[in-house]
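Hi U.,

Before I forget, here's the chain from the pilot set. I'm dumping it here mostly so it's searchable later in email.
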Amino acid sequence: MNPAVTPQRLTDRKRVAIIGAAIEEFLAAGYDATSMDRIAARANVSKRTVYNHFPGKEVLFAAILHQLWDASQRGDAPAYRAGEPLRPQLLDLLGRKLRLLNDASFLSLARVAIAAGIHSPERARDMVARLGEREEDLTMWVRAAVAAGRLKTDDPGFAALQLQALVKAFAFWPQVTMGEAPLGEREQRQVAEAAADMFLARYA
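Structure:
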């Protein structure tokens, strides 16, 4: 074996190939019509290899959504910074979220997830829960600002959800449900600034 091609590297390459094949299958055929067999064939690996990396289709789909989320971020999410103005910190976080929501692949897969959820509410709850794990940076920031006494609310999770809803009303739902074009940079700034100002007017 070539020493440059270690078993770990080969495993990583197969995982990348599986995710790439799964994205193509989900977008082409939809969630229900996509099978692990089809994904394995497109990735040119065995079905057993697919299951070694992902124990089920739901886990694989969630991994894809998480990867798209991670790809839209640059570095760690900015943490709450004591003593600094709240508005610029909030705009940094909202800018990261808007970059994800502007990703065409993410929006396409979100449509697949929603369509799958219509036929299986239980599956939808699981997908939403997995995606919710990736929105923790904003919730953590709100909790930290509340703990520092700079935001006033008895329910930081509810406040963070309100803030996300302000953004998604312009930069997610119209694109997913009505096929509207993703927001441009100027529109993203406008949405982020308006959402931040409304949020801070209520809770700061």
